Amino acid sequence: MSLQPYPPPSMSERYFVDEPITAERVTLSGPESHHLIHVMRAAPGVRVTLFDGGGDEFPAVVERVGRSEVELSVVSRERIDRELPCDLTIGVALPKGDRQKWLVEKAVELGVTRIVPLVTRRSVAQPVDQALVRLRRAVVEASKQCGRNRLMQIDQPSDWPAFVASAPVETCRLLAHPGVDNGEWKSKKENGMFFAAVGPEGGFDDGEVSLALEAGWLAVNLGPRILRVETAALALAAVVAAG
User: Fold this and answer.
1) End-to-end distance of the chain based on CA atoms, in angstroms?
2) How many helices, marked H, and strands, marked E, lie in the chain?
3) Can you say how many angstroms the Cα of residue 72 is from the centroid of all Cα atoms in its chain?
4) How many angstroms separate the CA atoms of 227 and 234, rounded?
């Protein structure tokens, strides 16, 4: 993984614009403007960095501060890539409560491209639309903090057979599962595309494991200890990111 020539601006200097930045002036509203107005106490002339999820950064200057909106002028457009050199999709049976948000935040930091909430036979949490909205907001906040200019995608939930079938056969497809790990997957890390899967707290059942292995997925043993869902997902992401 190549090092960046300079670090990203701090979170307090980075603001997300929820539509493509194409003009010389941008208006911030909602949570982003609230933070800039009421937390940072921004005044005209303050310099910040904007990003729209498309991969670029936009140095900008505050021009006008209103009651609920901030108008800024865009100084330049800079292509700064802080993504992994590979595309990594992780299907995961989400844990309960705040552990979901923690998983999402750390996945963003590790460079995961996409998370697909899985519905499996032993799933303990069924992600509803409201929860997905909160998690997608967590993606924005984590991206501001770590400097990513592309937003990690959180898909609608998928059942296990559909997720297994959705992974192209040319990708490296990894199944976190205790047991046999012959290391074969390590030789497939050069093709640049990964699908990985982590089951619920009770693990995938035998039928689900067989379905994936018969479709060509490779089992990955993450060690002799029992890992929580979020730990296993991030461990698997870290193995790919470090490669």
Assistant:
1) 8
2) 6, 13
3) 28
4) 10
Residue 69, strand partner residues: none
Instruction: Check residue 100 and give its pLDDT.
Output: 95
Mention every residue, 6+ apart, whose C-beta is less than 8 A from residue 14.
8, 48, 49, 50, 51, 144, 147
Tokens of 172: 């490296």
Token pair for residue 53? 């999820």
- The partner residues of 70 in beta bridges, in order of sequence, read 28, 65
| Helices 229-242 and 98-110, packing angle to 10 deg | 0
What CA–CA distance (Å, rounded) separates 46 from 49?
A: 10
Gap between the Cα atoms of 105 and 107, Å rounded: 6
Secondary structure of residue 47 in the 3-state scheme: strand
CA atoms in the 13 A half-sphere facing the CB of 161: 2
Beta strands in 66-191 (DSSP E): 70-74, 78-79, 87-92, 114-119, 153-154, 158-159, 172-176
pLDDT at 226: 86
Mean pLDDT, each 10-residue run in order, the chain (243 residues):
46 86 94 92 93 95 94 94 93 94 97 96 85 95 95 96 95 86 62 89 93 94 90 92 77
Tell me what pLDDT residue 129 has.
Answer: 87
What is the model's pLDDT at position 1?
32
What is d(CA 230, CA 237) in angstroms, rounded to the nearest whole number? 11
- pTM greater than 0.70: yes
Burial of 200 (0-12, 13-18, 19+ CB in 10 A): buried
